[in-house]
């Protein structure tokens, strides 16, 4: 399982299948099978048997999470920093008013693609790529977007399509 992941290849595949994926997920929203949540969980688990995130870490290199106040408080405490100092050092407010990293890749991503603050990481990081959510059709727009950055999200949609 510890082979390098060709992120560019997955991104290219995802771009080629955007329309197909969008149509499939829209169909799920209109007429979801009764056991969709169970199928989603099974497919999610299968995908993460195949994909080792530490061989990719593209999300940590290109997508910054939105930080909640709880995230900021928890991480600042971990570093024994005052909140304003943590925010000044690492965060900025984006055009949507969200607190995000000043720059990417994530400053807490180690050279080994491991997260230096894994146990206290932001909630958005822990949930990414959101492929184990109940009522997955409620986040179709996010799932489609994530397929462009995350090989696991792309495989998830492909496997889900095959399963349903």
Task: Describe the protein in words.
This protein is mainly α and about 160 residues long. Among the domains are: about 35-45 and about 125-164, no CATH class; about 65-125, no CATH class. It has helices at about 5-15, 20-30, 35-50, 60, 70-80, 85-90, 125, 140-145, 150-164; strands at about 90-95, 100. It has a two-stranded antiparallel sheet with strand order 1-2. A hairpin with a 5-residue loop joins strand 1 (about 90-95) and strand 2. Helix 3 packs across helix 9 (about 150-164), helix 5 packs across helix 6 and helix 8 (about 140-145) packs across helix 9 (about 150-164). The protein is globular, with a radius of gyration of 17 Å. It starts with 6 loop residues before the first helix and ends with a helix. The mean pLDDT is about 95. It holds the Pfam family CxxCxxCC.
